[in-house]
Amino acid sequence: MFEKLPLLAWPRDPRLSILMYHRVLPRHSPFFPDEVDAARFESQMRYLARNFTVLPLLEGVRRLQSGSLPSRSICITFDDGYADNLTVALPIMEKFGLKGTVFVATAYIEGGCMFNDAIAEMVTRTTCSVLDLQELGLERYDTSSIEHRRESINSIRKKARFYPPEQRNELVEKISRIAGVDSLPNDLMLTKAQVVELSRRGIEIGGHTITHPVLTSVDDNRAQTEIMMGKKTLEDWIDKPVRSFAYPNGLPGRDLTNQHAAMVRDSGFELAVTTGKGIASRLSDPFQLPRFVPWGNSMVKLGARMVREAWASAM
Ligand SMILES: [Zn+2]
């Protein structure tokens, strides 16, 4: 039996829920217990297919603006460009006939490893039981158990989140020396051929900059180049216009400003999504659309939370 949402639960004025995923792991990982895995993703997709009108993002936002959005509309998005979006998530979405958008940071395609993943890899693989990073301006991190490693990953990521890209690269190199981990995975992210394949199979490819800097951590020229060149590179690869954008990190006011939203608009994008929480209404700025993180195993809880959020943003 699958749970059904009561029809009357949704506000009458159409709202657009935009779900945000990153990775979809092939199986559960004790290091990342909150990360969605294939089984959980499949039950979420089944639930969405039964209870919502799942629309491609561009269509959803256009219909929100024109007032022709069906009730309980939802869009599915993935940030960064992980290979498992193609190998794990897409076959499940195809099974239910669902479409989505993958936002790709172009610098990591073809064997790259993003900062957050590099930190996770080094901390999970090191044979040290304490990782002393004080000489790098960080702390001593306990790596004696899975639980401690998980906490250490989170605190290193948090501390270095706003470093500019070059400083983060430098940090990864130095930590890898101290941790004794000399190679990072080269198959986490999509390859160029896989980006093209996603596009060919009906997944929208969206911009997510080149190197994934927090836009407020770089100057305006750099931000502009990251936004525009990321778009152009993707368009060259897939031979289609790239119209949707997702801000790296993406919290409005902290990770991006209205000025960055104007840069995105002036670069020829039609819409942009943030990581601000909420459900979009007709009054939402199309260049700062909020999203919604599907968490938890229980579909009933997920449904109840979505109804709550929809009403909260209707107030
Ligand atoms: Zn991202």
Written overview of the protein:
The protein is an alpha/beta fold and 315 residues long. The chain folds into 2 domains: 227 residues, Glycoside hydrolase/deacetylase (TIM Barrel); 65 residues, no CATH class. Helices cover 41% and strands 14% of the residues. It is built from 10 helices and 10 strands. The strands form 3 sheets. Strands 1, 2, 3, 4 and 7 form a 5-stranded parallel sheet that branches. A 3-stranded parallel sheet has the order 8-9-10, with helices on both faces. Strands 5-6 form a two-stranded antiparallel ribbon. Helix 4 packs antiparallel against helix 5. The radius of gyration is 20 Å and the shape is globular. The site of zinc ion (ZN) has 5 residues, from strand 3.
Question: Which tags fit this structure?
Answer:
alpha/beta, TIM Barrel, five-stranded parallel sheet, three-stranded parallel sheet, 10 strands, 14% strand
Summarize the structure.
By secondary structure, the chain is an alpha/beta fold.
Uncertain parts: none
**Overall helicity:** 40-55%
Which CATH architecture of the largest domain?
A: Alpha-Beta Barrel
Helix-strand pattern: EHEHEHEHEEHHHEHEHEEH
Termini separation? 33 Å
Strand content bin? 5-15%
Number of domains: 2
The Rg value, from CA coordinates, equals 20 Å
Which CATH top level class of the largest domain fits?
Answer: Alpha Beta
| Distinct ligands, ions and cofactors found in the model | zinc ion
Sequence-ordered SSE layout with sheet pairings:
Elements: E1 16-21, H1 38-51, E2 53-54, H2 57-66, E3 73-80, H3 84-95, E4 101-104, H4 115-125, E5 130-132, E6 140-142, H5 146-160, H6 165-179, H7 192-200, E7 204-207, H8 220-238, E8 244-246, H9 258-266, E9 271-277, E10 289-291, H10 299-312
Parallel strand pairs: 1-3, 2-3, 3-4, 4-7, 8-9, 9-10
Antiparallel strand pairs: 5-6
This protein binds zinc ion.
